[in-house]
Amino acid sequence: MRYLPHTPEDLESMLKVVGVKSLEDLFDVIPRDSRRTGNMDLPAAMSEWELHDFMSGLADKTAASPAYKLFIGAGSYEHHIPATVAHLSSRSEFVTSYTPYQPEMSQGTLQAIYEYQTLVSRLLGMEVANASMYDGATALAEALLMALRITRKKRLAVSSLIHPLYRRVIRTYLGPTGAELIELPRSADGTTDFTRIKELPDLAAVALQSPNFFGCLENLSIAAELIHKQNGLLITCFTEPLAFGLFKNPGSQGADIACGEGQSLGIPRSFGGPGLGMFASLMKYVRSMPGRLVGLTKDQEGKRGFVLTLSTREQHIRREKATSNICTNNSLCALTSAMYMASLGGSGLRGLARLNYDKAQYLQSALKKAGFKITFTAPAFNEFVVQFPSGFKTVHDRLLEKKKIAAGLALAPFYPDLPDHYLLCVTETKSKEDLDALVREVQS
Amino acid sequence: MKQTIGNTGLVLQEPLLWEKGRKGRSGFSFPKQDVPSAVLSSEWTGPGPDFPDLSELEVVRHYTRLSTWNFSVDTGMYPLGSCTMKYNPKINEKEAGLSGFQNAHPLLPSRLNQGALQLVYELEQFLTAITGLDAVSVQPTAGAHGELAGMLLIYAYHKSIGSKRSKIIVPDTAHGTNPASAALCGYRPVPVKSNEQGILSVESIAQAMDEETAGIMVTNPNTLGLFEENLKQISEIVHAKGGLVYGDGANMNAIMGIVDIGKIGVDIMHLNLHKTFATPHGGGGPGSGPVCVRKQLEPFLPVPRVVKKNDQYMLSEDFPQSIGKLHAFYGNFGVMIKAYSYIRSMGAADLKKASQLAVLNANYVKERLKDVFHLPYDRPCMHECVFTDKVQQANKIATLDMAKRLMDYGFHPPTIYFPLVVSGAIMIEPTETECKEDLDHFIEALRAISKEAEENPDLLRQAPFSCKVKRLDETAAARQPCLAG
């Protein structure tokens, strides 16, 4: 086996140094009754070439763009990824290093993550961002736990227009805490109905998603004012951070914690993971924050350098009193997103966000013209909800099977009161011809 | 210092991203604007982020230069204890990069994702075969996430039988994530000391275990690199009082094909695919922390689960007792591809061989260094060995000084000051992929450093000399945090 370097001579001399006769004897301390009797039941080893053939076969049995035209986002977005980003993020020095516990030997990762924290803070309009969480859903769950810690209250209001799968994850995380989770209903225009916030006393936080699951922008400033009046926090989450290239960011609208999924910033969809949990807050809450933080400092000669810092919040120091149990995060994905943001630059991010908006608007009006109903009227970014005629499911299935087109995501499994409603996503990866073809096909 | 592989060559400077570039540059190939510009109300728009504008080459040089300031497994030996920094095979990266995997959307119907689902299903099967437990969910995305899944499983199990328990036993050698994960489920960790042999004694657990206690979290082999020989009896005690045994599988690399986890009484265990199964650590993640369980706990595993019916793979939510979802989708699929590729490349015999060689390498290092460094537990170790700075303290040289000096010799330092039960711990995990010559170089470097500690201790206190920066002021960083530029 090419990963195992020991020759028979090596083995002989090493076993001699250790003072045992065979490799088996190394395990003499393990009681007999704890040992495995037979071999592990695994398929026979493959050569590199056999493996690649086999894996290619599996990959071919998975529907993927560009062969499929997927008009589905819903938390996992198709964007062009520059060759440079894929190339640079594959450099072994980044890929095969550990968490930067020894800063003198890890300045590459540390400076890159410090830059990531800075870019994320600027993108979200927040004061501080951490070095990443697992994904958008777990970032939101941690944000809610953080709000419970800061406010010492037990009640949370969560918009029903937060990604339905994120809401399931937060229920899992919050289950043992005894915190009360209240869902805020939606208004007719596709945004969250805030009226209940006033009626609910003692809220630790209100959590909203913007753009929300239907793609609509929430009026975060109004929610901020309502929740701040009762000394609770505004937590905003997102699944498509590209929107902040064009629209107001959460920080400028009063968010105390902003978190979400950063996959759309240069990370492949990869069947849902790994993505990137982005997490940012106001500086006054930094000591309650979960996750790692990289800080600027100087070395003995006064030279600029970076270290992991404020680690007294973390599990390896604080153990059961830590702000979270997180250790491994999604660092390489954070680095990748920083490379992507650096490639786009400020002007590029704005231009790309605008292009996404324009394409989504084009498809919206073309569908409207074709007689379909755009359900919600609130402003949207690159996703929106369409009501198709009843029985559209057969058309949807046929397009998927025969034309390799996914005409949106059916909302009924998540919102039973919205049968025949589909969530469509349009990004820069779809040409005008693709959009025109979609409009034609859904009418066929 | 004799000639070493330590770098004394050219190190290029590189400013921060926003200290570079000019407004109007771009490193992105813009798609055509082939649709009209739509109406946009200024009520909703913002100014956009203040990012620097860089050309493509500026971006490439920036990150290429930064990368050269990192030490990695691909540049040299990285013997971080309990981190299993083994070689990360390149073929696995290639497989994870296959278009059908990278461009798969998680919310398409299962019939269109058969390849991806087959991979997840089979990986879970492989992990049951490797551990000896009965069922697996690969949804947790890191070790601590797997621990959280495990604690939620224990919580759900006790709830299902109407038992209310408030405590959990956590040995003092445990990784910090253990008590932190237990606390997330409202459990109060009860610390238990290991005995003079560095392992848990049956008596101490018998004393700590009661009917208020939900279970025990045990890392086996433990963080001293020692096999918990009494675990089977300990499990019987915990089970007799209605508790469950959680095994932290971070150190599975020592015992693949050798120990049957089911037989030692473990009910739940997480694995770290980014340790044992050779997926890269990425400077801190992403990882994957599958949770493996005994049959009776299978109904509580996270959903959705991948099931196979009539040769079709599908995602099933039909597990009413499940703890729920832990990740927006199905976990870190991209990491699973690499672990799956590794297992298929190795097969059963070479996985077992990997564990044997990992244990051989650790014992070899231990034997060849124990005459110069204090070895607190002089017994056969598993995949890692733990020394201290007791001998070198005579010259007022601490573990930290020796760790920093090791950098000048071209090695990443071992894990230091952990486990907490050993003062000044130096925890070395060479892994099986290091060859004898490289181990010998590493051993010689540490022996040379111990000599330097006697002859020129100041040298060690000022080390490292050949890194991009000298020792950094961590106190200042924490006192006046500057976390963004």
Tell me what you see in this structure.
Chain A has 444 residues and is an alpha/beta fold. Chain A folds into 2 domains: 69-81 and 346-442, Aspartate Aminotransferase, domain 1 (Alpha-Beta Complex), CATH 3.90.1150.10; 83-340, 3-Layer(aba) Sandwich (Aspartate Aminotransferase, domain 2). In chain A, 36% of the residues lie in helices and 14% in strands. Chain A contains 13 helices and 15 strands. The longest helix of chain A has 39 residues, at 331-369. Chain A is globular. With 485 residues, chain B is of the alpha/beta class. Chain B has 2 domains: 92-345, Type I PLP-dependent aspartate aminotransferase-like (Major domain) (Aspartate Aminotransferase, domain 2, 3-Layer(aba) Sandwich); 351-469, Alpha-Beta Complex (Aspartate Aminotransferase, domain 1), CATH 3.90.1150. Chain B has 13 helices and 12 strands. Chain B has helices at 56-68, 90-96, 99-102, 114-131, 143-160, 177-184, 202-208, 231-240, 333-369, 399-408, 436-455, 457-462, 474-479; strands at residues 135-137, 167-171, 188-192, 213-219, 244-249, 268-271, 291-293, 305-309, 312-316, 385-387, 415-416, 426-428. Chain B has a 7-stranded mixed β-sheet, sandwiched between helices. A 3-stranded antiparallel β-sheet of chain B has the order 10-12-11, covered by helices on one side. A two-stranded antiparallel ribbon of chain B has the order 8-9. In chain B, helix 4 runs parallel beside helix 9 (333-369), helix 5 crosses helix 6 (177-184) and helix 9 (333-369) crosses helix 11. The longest helix of chain B has 37 residues, at 333-369. Chain B is globular. Chain B starts with 55 loop residues before the first helix and ends in a 6-residue tail after the last helix.
